[in-house]
C-alpha cells in the first residue's frame, strides 16, 4: 500500500512539475522539451536518484514504445491529405531518399568523429534523420513564407517521423543474431502490412461508431472512444507482432481526415473534446520521452568532445540538409520550387521528440555517448532553425510577400 501511495504521489508531482516547466518555457521562449530533459537529469541516477531510464521504459521498453505510439498518432492527426497530394513527389523524395541519404552521411560523420562502428553510425544516423513537426510549426507560423513551402515542410516532418522510425527499427532488427537478411526483411514487411491494416480498420471503426446514423452509439463519448482505440491499436500491434508505430500513424491519419471533413459540418470530430484528447496524449508522451532522455544523459559525456558535437550539428544543418534539398527537390518537375524556396527549406530542419524516443528504444544497441550526441543534435537543430529561419526568410525576400500561415 505504501509503495502504491508513493508512486501516485510521484506521478502527481511529475505532472505538476511538467506544467510548471511548460509555463516557464513559455515565459523564457525556450522549448519545454529541454526543461523536461533537465528534470530527468535532476531526478536521474546522478541526481536525486528517484528515477532511472530502465525502470521508466518498462520491460522490453514497452512503456516507451507506447509513448512513441502516441506521438505518431498525433503526427498522423496533423498530416493533411491535401498537402501530401499537392506536393506528393517532393514529400516522397524527402522522406525516402532524403532520410536514407541523411542517415548514410551522418553514419560516416559519426564514425570518423566519435569512433563508432558503421552499423552504430547508421543506426544513430537513422535516429537523427527524423524531424519534429512540433518544433517546426511555431517557426513557420511566424513567417510570411509561401504556403506551398510551409505545407511541404509540415508534411515532410510528419511523414518523416514514421518513415524514419521504421528505418530505425529495421536497422535495429538487423543486430539480432538469429535469422537472415531476407527473412528479416520479409518479417518486417509483414509487420508493416499488419500495422497499416490495423490502424486503418481501427480508424474506420472509430468514425462509424462516432458518426454513423444507426451504429454511431458513442457520438457523445468520443474522448473515451479514442482512448479505447489507442489502447486497442497498441495492444493489437504487440499481439500480432505488427508495426505499432505505423498502426498509430495510419489510425491518426484516418481519424484526422474525418476531423478535417468535420469542419464543414456538425460532427463530434469538430468539437473541443476531440482536440483536447489529442493535445493531452501528445503532451504526456512528449514529457515522458524527454524525461527518459534526461535520465540517460549521465555517463554519456565521458570522453566526449564538445567541439566534435558542434561539428556534427553544423555538418547536418549546413551541409547535409542543403545537399538533400537541392539534390532531390529539382526532381519534382510538377512543383518547380524556386532557388529561394529551396534555400529556405534547407534551413528549417529540426530534430526533436522522435529522435529522443528512438534513442530510448535503441539504447542497448548504442554506446553510452549516443545519448549526448542525440541531445546535442536536438538542441542544436532547434536553435539553428529558431535563430536562422527569420533572417533567411528576410534575405530571400519572403518577408515582403503575402504568405499564408500553415
What does this structure look like?
- The chain has 406 residues and is an all-alpha fold.
- It has a single domain, classed as Na+/H+ antiporter like fold (Up-down Bundle), CATH 1.20.1530.
- Helices cover 74% and strands 0% of the residues.
- It has helices at residues 2-28, 32-43, 53-57, 62-78, 81-86, 88-114, 118-129, 133-141, 147-173, 181-211, 222-240, 244-262, 272-296, 306-328, 339-345, 353-361, 370-395.
- Helix 4 (62-78) runs parallel beside helix 12 (244-262), helix 6 (88-114) crosses helix 9 and helix 7 packs antiparallel against helix 9 (147-173).
- The radius of gyration is 21 Å and the shape is globular.
- Mean pLDDT is 83; it is low at 400-406.
* Level-2 CATH architecture: Up-down Bundle
Bin the helical content. over 70%
The level 1 CATH classification is: Mainly Alpha
Q: Tally the helices.
A: 17
Describe the secondary structure blueprint for this structure.
Layout: H1 2-28, H2 32-43, H3 53-57, H4 62-78, H5 81-86, H6 88-114, H7 118-129, H8 133-141, H9 147-173, H10 181-211, H11 222-240, H12 244-262, H13 272-296, H14 306-328, H15 339-345, H16 353-361, H17 370-395
Helix pairs in contact: 1-2, 2-13, 4-9, 4-12, 4-13, 4-16, 6-7, 6-9, 6-14, 7-9, 7-16, 8-9, 10-11, 10-12, 11-12, 11-13, 13-16, 14-17, 16-17
Amino acid at each position: 500500500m505504501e509503495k502504491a501511495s508513493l508512486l501516485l504521489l510521484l506521478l502527481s508531482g511529475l505532472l505538476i512539475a511538467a506544467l510548471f516547466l511548460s509555463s516557464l518555457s513559455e515565459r523564457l521562449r525556450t522549448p519545454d522539451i529541454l526543461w523536461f530533459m533537465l528534470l530527468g537529469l535532476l531526478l536521474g541516477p546522478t541526481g536525486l536518484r528517484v528515477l532511472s531510464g530502465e525502470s521508466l521504459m518498462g520491460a522490453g521498453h514497452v512503456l516507451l514504445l507506447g509513448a512513441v505510439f502516441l506521438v505518431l498518432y498525433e503526427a498522423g492527426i496533423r498530416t493533411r491529405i491535401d498537402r501530401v497530394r499537392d506536393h506528393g513527389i517532393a514529400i516522397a523524395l524527402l522522406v525516402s531518399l532524403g532520410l536514407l541519404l541523411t542517415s548514410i552521411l551522418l553514419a560516416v560523420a559519426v564514425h570518423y568523429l566519435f569512433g563508432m562502428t558503421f552499423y552504430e553510425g547508421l543506426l544513430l544516423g537513422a535516429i537523427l534523420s527524423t524531424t519534429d513537426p512540433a518544433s517546426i510549426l511555431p517557426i513557420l507560423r511566424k513567417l510570411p513564407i509561401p504556403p506551398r513551402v510551409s505545407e511541404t515542410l509540415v508534411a515532410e516532418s510528419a511523414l518523416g517521423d514514421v518513415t524514419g522510425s521504421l528505418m530505425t527499427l529495421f536497422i535495429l532488427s538487423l543486430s539480432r543474431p538469429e535469422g537472415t537478411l531476407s527473412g528479416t526483411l520479409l518479417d518486417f514487411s509483414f509487420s508493416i502490412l499488419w500495422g497499416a491494416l490495423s490502424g486503418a480498420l481501427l480508424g474506420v471503426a472509430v468514425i462509424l461508431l462516432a458518426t454513423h446514423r444507426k451504429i454511431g452509439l458513442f457520438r457523445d463519448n468520443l474522448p473515451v472512444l479514442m482512448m479505447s482505440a489507442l489502447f486497442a491499436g497498441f495492444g493489437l500491434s504487440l499481439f500480432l507482432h505488427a508495426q505499432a508505430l505505423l498502426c498509430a500513424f495510419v489510425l491518426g491519419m484516418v481519424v484526422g481526415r474525418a476531423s478535417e471533413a468535420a469542419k464543414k459540418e456538425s460532427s463530434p470530430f469538430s468539437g473541443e473534446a476531440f482536440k483536447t484528447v489529442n493535445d493531452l496524449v501528445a503532451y504526456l508522451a512528449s514529457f515522458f520521452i524527454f524525461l527518459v532522455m534526461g535520465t540517460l544523459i549521465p555517463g554519456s559525456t565521458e570522453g566526449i568532445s564538445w567541439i566534435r558535437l558542434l561539428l556534427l550539428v553544423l555538418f547536418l544543418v549546413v551541409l547535409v540538409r542543403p545537399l538533400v534539398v537541392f539534390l532531390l527537390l529539382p526532381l519534382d518537375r510538377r512543383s518547380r520550387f524556386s532557388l529561394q524556396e529551396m534555400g529556405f527549406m534547407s534551413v528549417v530542419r529540426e530534430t526533436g521528440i522522435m529522435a529522443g524516443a528512438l534513442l530510448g528504444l535503441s539504447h542497448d544497441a548504442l554506446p553510452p555517448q549516443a545519448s549526448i550526441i542525440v541531445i546535442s543534435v536536438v538542441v542544436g537543430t532547434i536553435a539553428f532553425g529558431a535563430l536562422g529561419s527569420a533572417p533567411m526568410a528576410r534575405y530571400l525576400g519572403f518577408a515582403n510577400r503575402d504568405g499564408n500561415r500553415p
